[in-house]
Amino acid sequence: MKRILGTVIFLIALWLPAATIWAQAENQPSPGALERWRQMSPQEKEELRERYQRWKALPPEEKTELHKRFETWRQLPPAEKAVIRKNFQRWQNLSPEQQEQFRERWQRWRNLPPEKREMLKQRFEKLRELTPEQRRELREKFKERQNLSPEEKRAFRQRLKEQLQRREKVDD
Prior knowledge:
The protein is mainly alpha-helical. Helices cover 86% and strands 0% of the residues. The mean pLDDT is 83.
């Protein structure tokens, strides 16, 4: 998700100059490009020039990779694009601290073994299926467990482990 979000952000930032470059490469002017340029403020024009310079400075491999990602973006269904845009907007509204926390959590997630990720996904799905009252009850139990001493927590984990082992034996 982080990689997609980063790619989308970068693609949005490079879209207009990239579209202009590809149009020029084909020796066909982009329809309405001159009119859009004329309607831009001096500040917008300067920003566009800076983006173009950053694009020109990219190594050819990165340009190729971005072009592929841009094509992938263009082929996405409108509903998927809307979800990505919404998530991007939510990301932009996060404080730098929240963004950093998100990055750290994302990295921890990526570092988990696939089996552990799958198990957590299943747990999350089960949690989503609960009623609001069941979720509230679960939250309260969790808060109660947070107040336990380290010894009590160990004993609780041990009981849970034993219960899971018994369930696995019954399922087999």
